[in-house]
Amino acid sequence: MKMMSSDLVENFLGEFATSLEHSLLEVLPDAHGMEEQVIEAMRYGLFAGGKRLRPFLVMMTSGLFSVEEENAIRVGAAIECLHTYSLIHDDLPAMDDDDIRRGKPSVHKKFDEATAVLAGDALLTLSFEILADVKTHSDPEIRCELIATLSRAVGALGMVGGQMIDLKSENQSLIESEINRMQQMKTGALIVFSCEAGAILAGVRGERRDVLKHYGRDIGLAFQIADDLLDTERSSLDIGKTAGKDVHAGKATLVALVGAKDARVKADRLIKQAIESLDIFDDKANILRSLATFVVSRNY
After folding, report:
1. What is the per-residue burial (b if ≥16 Cβ within 10 Å, else e) of 172-208?
2. pLDDT tens column, 200-234
3. What is the pTM of this model?
4. CA–CA gap between residue 237 and residue 229 (Å, rounded)
5. Taking a C-beta distance cutoff of 8 angstroms, is the pair 44, 107 a contact?
6. Which one, 35, 44, 124, 150, has the greatest CB density within 10 A?
7. Using only C-alpha atoms, what is the Rg of the chain?
8. Residue 83 pLDDT more than 80?
9. Residue 34: Cβ within 10 Å count
10. DSSP assignment of 181-205
């Protein structure tokens, strides 16, 4: 099974990110009056850059089941809207309080805090509007399953709950299993949905769908470990946000608990598991295997 270099994976991501922009422009609402500022803030957040990793995962897993590209790209656009909402709110002073996102002023600095809250709210609700549209899939049961599965992934027992744990655990001592659970909720749950979405669109259940969920869990946790390593080892210019903030805020991370060396060993082990789990798909999953390696080798 052929593995691609990190540079090649990065090129694939860059090409996909460019192609996704057209779909994002299509789903954004037009301004007709005094609501224009919130729509401009939504646009600013969505087009501030980023890897577009989550929608790319939707496209790659959908390809395993020959899902129509238009269906997959719309689900990817919905996820990117929701992910951007989470970043806008995460940067707010009441949350992680960061003035920089993707190398540019955060939405609340470019506009104001109230506009940032509303822009995040609007992007969150837009994501479900996209999934509910018949253009996303002709089968209403599949659209409902997409909505229900995403809701669980980002609600109180998923991303939002993980963010709450993250805030509550500052300057507290968590054990490794507690850190893993927090990160699987805060970061991993949306990545798992992104991997599972292709199977949902194809109406696939059973082993192949479970494999993609396990793959998503492994790369999701490895992705967060890599992020925490970047926070301690790279500059703000490199990572596009304020470096060293996690240490300063006393965040509970695996890097803080076991050190950079052991955290990197764990991330590598997770990636090995993720790659091995894809054996059921043979060579069709080679890009996903290479992407898993990129998750921990990236420098931004």
Report:
1. eebeeeebbebbbbbbbbbbbbbbbbbbbbbebeeeb
2. 999 999 999 999 999 999 999 999 999 999 988 87
3. 0.94
4. 15
5. yes
6. 150
7. 18
8. yes
9. 7
10. HHHIIIIIHHHHHHHHHHHHHHT--
Report which residue type is found at 217. Answer: R
**What is each CA distance from 259 to 48, 107, 119, 140, 253, in whole angstroms?**
32, 33, 37, 48, 10
pLDDT confidence of residue 251: 86
45: left (phi over 0), alpha (psi -120 to 50) or beta: alpha
The end-to-end CA distance of the chain, in Å, is 27
For 154-207, the pLDDT digits (tens) are: 999 999 999 999 999 988 889 999 999 999 999 999 999 999 999 999 999 999
List the structure tokens of 194.
């992104």
Burial of 252 (0-12, 13-18, 19+ CB in 10 A): buried
Tokens of 77: 């656009």
Task: Kindly state the helix (H) or strand (E) to which residue 100 belongs, with its residue range.
Answer: strand 100-101
Tell me the CA distances in angstroms from 82 to 24, 75, 87, one per residue in order: 12, 11, 9
The H-or-E segment that residue 10 falls in is helix 6-27
Residues pairing with 105 in the sheet: 100
Least confident segment among 92-96, 168-172, 269-273, 296-300: 296-300
What residue has token string 């007709």?
32
Burial class (CB in 10 A: 0-12, 13-18, 19+), 214: middle
Q: Which pLDDT value is given to residue 250? A: 81
Give the max Cα distance, the chain. Answer: 55
What does the domain layout of the chain look like in residue ranges? 6-297
Contact call for residues 13 and 290 (beta carbons, < 8 A): no
Nearest to 130 by CA among 196, 88, 81, 86: 81
Residue 135: per-residue pLDDT: 97
